[in-house]
Amino acid sequence: MSHAAAYALALLAALLFGAAAPAGKPLLASLHPVQLAGLLYLGAALGVAPVLIARRRLRPVWRADRPTRLRLGGAILAGGVVGPVLLLLGLDRAGAASVSLWLTATAALAPLDAGADAVLGALALGALAYGASIPLYIAAAQHLGATRAQLVFSAAPFFGVGLAAAFLGEPLGWEHAAAAALVAVALTALAREAHRHEHRHDPLEHEHWHRHDDGHHDHVHAHLPAWAGHSHRHAHGALVHSHPHLPDLHHRHDHAHDH
Length: 259
What we know:
The structure is a single chain. The protein has 259 residues and is mainly alpha-helical. It folds into two domains: 3-191, no CATH class; 199-257, no CATH class. 56% of the residues lie in helices and 10% in strands. The chain has helices spanning 3-18, 20-24, 33-54, 66-93, 101-108, 116-144, 146-153, 156-167, 174-191; strands at residues 196-201, 204-210, 230-236, 239-244. Helix 1 packs across helix 8 and helix 6 packs antiparallel against helix 7. The two termini are 26 Å apart.
């Protein structure tokens, strides 16, 4: 995948994720924030699972090693439970008086009596805003590195602001426009970054999604074209070469010794 394509994936992920707030706010008229958060992630699972099953890439979590399970558990707790609930609670409270935490907990456990349209809308929103955006972000981070991918993904709130102004009629001030312009300039400068030098890859064995036309994966699979993406455990031998690169999975080297 080219760097430009990876930046495009990160921007698309930001757009979809940013759409969650403005698209989810009307649903709060029928659903409690905690109920909506649950439906959003249920929709994400329903949207992603068929793709994984069709590609035979659905693997039980318990088969992963312990560090991976711990990292995944932390990501699920922070990003899949606490974060969405706090976000939707904030949306529900915007411009309204606060209520007690006990009342919030009681409402969250109330029966799901929303109409079918609201439930289906929440599931569809979850499939796109979370189910599609998070895999796109992860794919971008694999090629750009976590820092650069997160910087691009930080444009999500600005997409949300624009969508809220366009479809919910919320006011858009000069402050929003100025901030969005600064972000656009920063992302443009980031995308124009050029980094190339001779560097060394030490022997390494790991598992991740990869292709064989990227100059780093030279092992051979019979009957599998070089452009076909797949995932399995594989080994890399020592390699010294020069090409444009970013701090992705294979380029986390120390620059103090590369020149």
